[in-house]
Amino acid sequence: MIRNQDRLFTDVDASIKAFADELKAKNVWNSVTLIETSDFARTLSPNGNSGTDHAWGGNYFMMGGSVR
How many CB atoms lie within 10 A of CB 11? Predict the structure, then answer.
């Protein structure tokens, strides 16, 4: 599972880099902010079936030339 996750994160990283490189090439990097949110997360407490329930919100990140 971890190997698959590593591969997927490598794909995400390459995609975000390509997007940022294109914004910089078009000279709009400082005018764009990318915000990523997950549509759901998981609760920390197990449910009755030894799993976890859906929760609201999960991982977020933001990037752009003007983001500090």
Answer: 10
Which tokens is 22 given? 């294109």
In this predicted structure, the answer to whether residue 1 has a pLDDT above a threshold of 60 is: no
Question: 63 CB contacts (<8 Å, ≥6 apart)?
Answer: 16, 20, 33, 34
Q: Residue ranges of the alpha helices (H) in the chain?
A: 2-25
User: For residue 24, what are the CA distances in angstroms to 12, 27, 32, 33, 66?
Assistant: 18, 5, 10, 12, 12
Residue 41 in tokens:
């997360």
pTM of the model: 0.67
Cβ-Cβ contacts under 8 Å for 39 (sequence gap 6 or more): 58
